[in-house]
Amino acid sequence: MDAIHSGRVRMRPRWKFILSGVLAALGVIILVCTLLFITSFAIFTLRETGVLFTPIFGMRGLFTFFAALPLILIILLVLFVIILEVLVRRYRVGYRTPLLVSVVAILIVVVLGGYGVEQTRVHDMILHQARLPGGGVPPPIAIMYRAGVQHVPGVFHGTIVSIIPGGFLLVDQDVDATTTVYIDPSTMIPPGAKFQPGEEVVVFGDEASGTVHAEGVVQISD
Amino acid sequence: MTNETANETDEMVATRVQDGDADAFAMLVERYEDKLMRYARKFLRDPDDAKDIVQDVFIKSYENIQSFDATRRFSPWIYRIAHNEFVNAIKKRSRGPVLGIDFDVVFPHLTAGETADDTALERDTKRILEECLDELDPKYREPLVLYYFEGLSYKDMADILRIPMSTVGVRLARGKSQLQKIAAEKNLYE
How many domains does chain B have? Predict the structure, then answer.
């Protein structure tokens, strides 16, 4: 008590604790928004390149999927989830919950939320602007978007422009590339599928001189 | 101390301190000094250290009193500050990670709800605990001290140690198991 009365020991002012609380809450909000952006961008790049659909084409498709996963985004996702977990542990709801449960809950929210953000097509709009000269997208962002949707070997996402004997012609309008796709009895296609001009599809198979012998084709509906 | 001030709850007194009544803090010191000294002696096992560290606890709690939420209970709040100071003291002494990576808080646990031991069992446990405290892992010693000597609930302990309530149960169970082994080796059972 002597130290208190003499002023050697002083109360820290309330505003410092309020500021600390506000900054922590702000940190949580920013981290959640960042995580939603990272997840939605990852889902967007996987959808735009067609890689999202390759797991249905068997082991090779699954391997292509994992090989094409945006590793940097995954590392950033893990890092930010860890930071968010540390921040959340400050609060009773954080430390009273087993770590595994709270991490899984964060991941579920982030993945579902990211999927929801991706469905708004905001990334499609940004990509479109990033491809236009003077589109107004800051260069680092434009580079990130263009790099994210680069063609993945063996995966072709486009629109059928015409049916030809034994297959169809596929156009990726974003990069103005035409690919000839041949289908044979070993091609994995949905039961009863009939391909028509104007349909958006993902084709899985190796390319040689602009021609693909499709291992699998899947129709994409919005 | 008047009857009126004696009937004030810890939370009311803390609010007075927050409003600038520094002398009210003396009431909190009076109420908690013995409890925190007992907690310190049993957890730290060094009586010389205990007095200095408990003084630091009161200094820290006065300095940070504005962070106390008066809608919550004061006891877990000051015990939390004490826990932090005691753990820092042990870390300084041991020069290594005291409690290490805590896998107890990673996974959810299915444990029985909090039930009071019967009086005889509790008395026995306290007696054995007194004899064997030194040999217990600090990770299990602390919850046993808080439960058997400070009489705190699982809920309070969860807030003090910042762990899930199920983990409090797990640590108490493992602590008691360790205690039983040590007691059996020392032939402490009557």
Answer: 2
Cβ of B63 within 8 Å of Cβ of A9? The answer is yes
How confident is the model over A44-88, as pLDDT tens digits?
999 999 999 999 999 999 999 999 998 888 999 999 999 998 888
CA B106 to chain centre: 22
CA distance A80 to A84: 6
SS3 A208: strand
Contacts 24+ apart (CB under 8 A), A166-169: A167/A214, A168/A195, A168/A197
Class of domain A155-219: mainly beta
Asked whether the beta carbons of residue A101 and residue B108 sit closer than 8 angstroms, the reply is yes
* Residue that terminates a domain, selected from B94, B117, B148: B94
How far is residue A21's CA from residue B68's CA, in Å, rounded to a whole number? 13
**Cβ-proximal residues to A177 (8 Å cutoff; 6+ apart), any chain:** A158, A171
Q: What is the pTM of this model?
A: 0.81
Please report the ipTM that was assigned to this predicted complex: 0.77
> Alpha-carbon distance B78 to B28, whole Å?
10
Do B79 and B126 lie in one domain? The reply is: no
Which residues of chain B does A89 touch, with a Cβ-Cβ cutoff of 8 Å?
A: 162
